[in-house]
Amino acid sequence: MSGALVFAWSGVVLFSLGLFGFIVHRHLLRRLLAFNIMGSGAFLVLVGLAQDGRGIDPVPHAMVITGIVVAVASTALALVVFRRWYRASGRTDLPEDT
Amino acid sequence: MIGFWSVPLLFALPLALGIVSLLAPPAWRARLGLAGLLPLLAASIAVFAHLVLDGPHTYALGNWNAPLGINLAVDGLAAGMVLLTAVVSSLCAIYAWVYLRDQPASSSFFWPLLWFLWAGMNGIWLAEDIFNLYVGLEVMGLAAVGLVALKATPQALAAAMRYLLAALLGSLAYLLGVALLYASYGTLSMAGLQEAATADVTTQVALALIILGLLLKTALFPLHAWLPPAHGGALTPVSALLSALVVKGSFYILLRIWMVLGTEVTPFATAQLLGILGAGAVFYGGWMAWRQHHLKQLVAYSTVAQIGYLFLFFPLVTGTGPEAARLAWDGTLMMLIAHALAKAALFLSAGNLILAVGSAHIGHLVGISRFRPMSLFSFGLAGVSLMGLPPSGGFTGKWLLLNSAILSGQWWWLIVLFLGGLLSAAYIFKVFRMAFREGPQVDHSVTPPLTLDVTALMLAASAILIGLTAHLPLAWLRIGSPFGAG
């Protein structure tokens, strides 16, 4: 297995771990962390798989940088909404009744 | 020429307005926003007029070519969506300007978020590659979540959080699909993918991830649970924007990718499955809408149902003859446009009725027909299109879908179209029955400002007009489409 494929497979493992955490956990901060792990997994797949046997390719790097910006922005927004929700309701999870 | 140079303005203008209005003092933001509507509307019209006169074209932003630059493709569908976005957003913005006048906290953040939402949507309509579709999807999604959270009640915050979690999960699935596609084809552009597409396992897994992610974002039954609280619980102009335009963003991407890859790569059963889920959405959404007691929740469940019709596109276009596929394309786009106009009108007029009686409970609408006929008229006009009665856009769309189903021999979709219409009639008339019941003889209701009624009426009237003049928009939408300009 080439080095690039090792990255890609690690990415798949990270993505699956993150997905598991995202579904299992109820605490919103944990779900947010799980989302970030999933994101890192997707970025590793993006860079690793595209370079397998083709050498250095700048396009996935550009995409991952954009993706990181998106992930940071999403996390920041989620934190703001979470903090407001926590202040308004005193809960760290979402009501499951709806 | 003006139309060609207006293409980059479709992003530059809303992004600049978004940043400037964040920097401006809150009191100026609404006025700045109203001033910004006009140039943006003009740019959208210029792009559309250029398409109609000169045909489809691509635009390389800043003269940087793909893969590191960004290519934009303007065809009939893209320009049509740009124009639809401009019309619906402008009217919702004018509504919001009046509606939020005495809520300065919400108003000051509504405008920057609206501009970012607009930029994200234009990014989706014009993107020519699957990665910029992702970026557009995220800009639109994050702005939409912010808009839902504007109403700072605990319910709205929980709805925003749920919406955000669904959106994040959906876009990561989409991104993983993009990663797999890039790894196997070395290209992101739609045209490149269409040329290279083969039905191997990697492509099928990638497409499955992309479809799943987009279904979650489009809130197709049974992945719809986040939609009713978010759309029904937001501020009225926000509800209208979300239901009319934002859910169409992810559906649009699905439609584009299906035309590029889906018909070649996916097994026949996938298209049928999407149609069956669509049928489930029509029945479940209609049934749930009929059972609601909260007026805006009723309208939100109606969106769940109407999204279902759009998914009849997939079985009608995959593996059927060219004529049936062309009818399905026309019908789906007509349904999409008619729903955007009618649903925005329905939410805005529902907001007016709620303002008038001071309660969102449908039971409190008793006797309102005597005192607020105009709000109720807009509600009914939009309802005509949602039920699919002639001469509305909803009728034309359903008629085209019906012909396509008959032509391709898939009679079972006729049942969905027919029963779906009956269910829509049931929940629209549920509101009317209350409104026409004899109530108090003295007018206790508040009079909403005229602007609110006029914007709702304009949207409802255009949902009817688009059906009366359907051949023109349909001919324009076919420019540069996979089915030719015929």
How would you describe the overall organization of this protein?
Chain A has one domain: Orthogonal Bundle (Helix Hairpins), CATH 1.10.287. Helices cover 80% and strands 0% of the residues of chain A. Chain A is elongated, with a radius of gyration of 16 Å. The N and C termini of chain A lie far apart (47 Å). In chain A, 31% of the residues are buried. Chain B is mostly helical. Chain B has a domain of 220 residues. A two-stranded antiparallel ribbon of chain B has the order 1-2. The radius of gyration of chain B is 21 Å and the shape is globular. At the A-B interface, α1, α2 and α3 of A face α5 and α6 of B.
Short descriptors:
heterodimer; A: 98 residues; mainly alpha; Helix Hairpins; elongated; B: mainly alpha; 20 helices; 2 strands
Strand order of the largest sheet of chain B: 1-2
- The string of secondary-structure elements of chain B, in order, is HHEEHHHHHHHHHHHHHHHHHH
Major sheet size, sense and barrel closure of chain B:
2 strands, antiparallel
Strand content of chain A: under 5%
* Structural domain count of chain A: 1
Alpha-beta content class of chain B: mainly alpha
How far is the N terminus from the C terminus of chain B?
A: 25 Å
Q: List the chains of the largest interface with their residue counts.
A: A-B, 36 and 34 residues
What is the overall shape of chain B?
globular
